Amino acid sequence: MAISRYAEFETVKDQSTNRLRLESFPYIRAEELYDSVNDVIITFTDGMRIDTLAQDYLGDGRYWWVICLINDLDLPFGDRLLPGTVIRIPTNVSVILDKIANKIKKAI
User: Fold this and answer.
1) Domain range spanning residue 84?
2) Does any domain span residue 5?
């Protein structure tokens, strides 16, 4: 049986949301990543996919996780992402990556 790449991470409970998460890097609230001046706000419709939105807006479908992070979507393919859900998409992924890197540096 394959070993999960997440097996070494501990599960922690976030005190503010009371939700469980993996302690893979310091917790980042979605609001910490907002750039309200430049972010694009769309309404998710039937047939949309997060990886396609990442490709269209961020230039690379592999940045789907950035859209999930900025929208606090822990299950992007589950029932939390329904048609009508308002999605925030950053227009500059480098700004988001820099914010994440800075948060990690402060935690080390």
Assistant:
1) 29-93
2) no
